[in-house]
Design a protein that fits this description.
Blueprint: E1 5-7, E2 14-18, E3 21-22, E4 24-26, E5 33-37, E6 40-41, E7 45-46, E8 53-57, E9 60-61, E10 65-66, E11 73-77, E12 86-87, E13 101-105, E14 108-110, E15 114-115, E16 119-123, E17 131-134, E18 138-140, E19 149-152, E20 157-160, E21 166-168, E22 170-173, E23 176-179, E24 188-190
Parallel strand pairs: 1-4, 2-5, 3-6, 4-7, 5-8, 6-9, 7-10, 8-11, 10-12, 11-13, 12-15, 13-16, 14-17, 16-19, 17-20, 18-21, 19-22, 20-23, 21-24
């Protein structure tokens, strides 16, 4: 158990938190890799500048996740209790030269409060799919025609549960897309 802050400092860092708890995780500058399995973090997870990768499985984050500037990736698996926001960093456009991706792998549950990701992927592993429920009023991914946006693999499912959900970005649906809270409302995909 770590009782204070985990701070990677100003180089390329890699650390794994398995079980237990801590208050805050800071990657700092550099290309950082965070692995959190069965971990409770009461504060924030911050990537800083650099190309960061965060792997989150069966964990609880009390604050926010901000991966910072750079081309960052986040993979979610197993039950996760979400923070106030999961921010890929920068913006949701490829024009800044960075591409941020969030992947839901062997995952069933809410997408969480995601912002500033150019690519959102609901992934199969072999023939086992994921089921992700997008329940916010809107989501924005990379500009239309960029080849980025929402991708749902063949054995996976995306559920748009908000009756007025607007997806701003491309959508590549090889699996299943359920739209609407019981079929009510209008969901839109602009891309």
């Amino acid at each position: 158990i770590v009782t204070g802050t985990v701070d990677g400092g100003a180089d390329d860092d890699g650390f794994a938190l398995q079980g237990g708890s801590t208050t805050t995780v800071i990657g700092g500058s550099g290309n950082d890799i965070f692995t959190m399995v069965g971990t409770a973090i009461s504060g924030n997870v911050t990537g800083g500048t650099g190309d960061d990768l965060a792997l989150l499985t069966a964990s609880v984050i009390g604050g926010s996740i901000d991966l910072g500037a750079g081309s960052d990736g986040m993979a979610l698996a197993g039950p996760v209790t979400f923070p106030t926001s999961i921010d890929g960093g920068g913006d949701a456009s490829t024009l800044d030269g960075f591409v941020d991706e969030i992947q839901y792998t062997l995952y069933t549950g809410l997408a969480g409060p995601i912002v500033n990701f150019e690519q959102v992927t609901v992934i199969d592993v072999l023939t086992v799919g994921s089921t992700v429920t997008f329940d916010a009023a809107s989501y924005t991914t990379a500009e239309s025609g960029s080849g980025f946006g929402l991708t749902v693999d063949p054995n996976s499912t995306a559920i748009f549960s908000n009756a007025g959900l607007a997806w701003n970005g491309d959508a590549f649906i090889d699996g299943t897309l359920f739209a609407g809270a019981g079929g009510a409302g209008l969901q839109t995909i602009t891309g």
